[in-house]
Amino acid sequence: MGYPRKLKNCTAHVDGENYLGVVGEFEEPKLALATDDWRGGGMLGPVKIDMGLEGMQATLSMGGHEATLLRKFGTTSAEGVRVRLVGAYQADDGSAAQAVECYIGGRFSEIDLGKSKPGDNTEHKYTVPLVYYRRVVDGIEEIEIDLLAGVFRVDGIDRYAEIMDILTS
User: Fold this and answer.
1) What's the mean pLDDT in 54-58?
2) Which of 6, 115, 126, 150 is the most buried (most CB within 10 A)?
3) Tell me: the pLDDT tens digits for 78-109?
4) What's the structural domain count of the chain?
5) What is the pLDDT of residue 119?
6) What is the mean pLDDT of the chain?
7) Of 127, 92, 110, residue with least CA distance to 4
8) CATH code for the domain of 106
9) What was the pLDDT predicted at 125?
């Protein structure tokens, strides 16, 4: 019988600044292929055709007011904010903790300042549509997606390299 690795603790770095003790939670992007149904002559039913990737979005929640993050709102660059999320995952079976790092690039499209009431918890939520995503586990790159550069690498294999070679030669 096994134990699942659970997030034991985390931090976030936004444009190089560490928010240890301030970041409350983060939500990584959902990874999804964009597909379209195709049923050609002679086929018994439709099959899903790979049409690239769906858009990606991440969210960060901070424990309170962070003026430096508010100042990043409205940047004109689609990849104007760089975030490094670091998590320590561990199973309760005595095994070593596992380092999971997520590197994301995008811009804050929405900042939800929530409710503020003296004596109550305050939380600000930042929504980041992504142009870049990379997930590294114990120093090994698992996934890298760069929507602008046409990179779609999983387990060291760039699944879009052949197409990019055709486009750039």
Assistant:
1) 97
2) 126
3) 999 999 999 999 999 999 999 999 999 999 99
4) 1
5) 87
6) 95
7) 92
8) 2.30.110.20
9) 97
**Does residue 1 fall inside a structural domain?**
no
Expressed as residue numbers, the domain containing 134 is 6-37+48-168
End-to-end CA distance of the chain: 52
Does 43 reside within a domain?
no
Residue 136 lies in a domain: yes
**Is residue 42 one of the residues assigned to a domain?**
no
